[in-house]
Amino acid sequence: MKVNKLLLYFFFVLMSLNIYGQDAADQKHQNYLFFLHNRFTEEMPFGSSHPEYGKSEYLEIIDAFKNAGFQVLSEKRPAGTDVTLYAKKVVYQIDSLIKMGINADHITVVRTSKGGYIAQMTSTLLANPNVNFVFIGSYRDQDLVKMPQINFCGNILTIFERSDEFGVSAIKRKERSNLKVTRFKEIELNTGLKHGFLFKPLNEWIGPVVMWGKRKYNLI
Q1: Are 117 and 81 in contact (CB under 8 A)?
Q2: 31-47 tens-digit pLDDT
Q3: Which SS3 state, helix, strand or coil, does residue 73 take?
């Protein structure tokens, strides 16, 4: 995507959030949240049901974050989206917000499954130690070999489910990262829902994301 198209896209995002209608003080104190959904939502039409996990409640998840007071930036990605290219797009959007005067720690990037890998790459490319990141069900130890280019940077919260194949600690990635990780915490869930836990706006993970995005780091 060329820069002029990125500018046009981001302009419409800002307009949809009514950011241009806010004064500078309101913008500075608003909390912004980028939500990057899972692979199933990318590949299937809205309303589709996974044979094992049921409906991917993307819109309900967005509403949960909006109801918590966030300005949410999210879109349904086209099938086959390239992780690195999309991460560059998100980096551009975050940089644009910061240039508008938004504090970096008022920006949170949340991702689930494949979206989590996009978020990890965003963290690497952005290299801003003050932005908040939440990686949900999106890490396996084999990633250290398959995706060695990823480096965590920022305030990092990882959430994983014990029954999920992606349900492992990401501490090894954090320890191997050579960028600044300002904060790092992990939450292990035990819902028994396997990878399906991230298909629904469960308070078990929505709640910690909201606290992290509002800089209540010590409450987690």
Answers
A1: no
A2: 999 987 665 656 566 66
A3: strand
Q: Give kind and range of the element (H or E) at residue 181.
A: strand 181-189
3-state SS assignment for residue 54: strand
pLDDT tens-digit map of 111-144:
765 445 677 899 999 999 999 999 988 788 888 9
CATH architecture assigned to 3-219: 3-Layer(aba) Sandwich (3.40)
**Quick check: helix, strand or coil at residue 200?**
coil
Q: Which of 48, 32, 41, 152 is nearest to 104 (CA)?
A: 32
Instruction: Report domain extents, the chain.
Output: 3-219
User: What H or E segment, with its residue span, contains residue 7?
Assistant: helix 3-16
Contact (CB, 8 A) for 101 and 23: no
Q: How far is residue 7 from each of residues 122, 143, 190, measured CA to CA in Å?
A: 18, 33, 42
Task: Tell me what pLDDT residue 39 has.
Answer: 58
Take residue 17 and report the two structure tokens written for it.
């959030």
DSSP 78: P
Give the distance, in angstroms, between the CA of residue 175 and the centroid of all CA atoms in the same chain: 21
pTM over 0.90: no
- The DSSP line for 144-173 is HHH-TT----EEEEEEEETTSTT-S--HHH
Rounded Cα–Cα distance for residues 182 and 179 (Å): 9
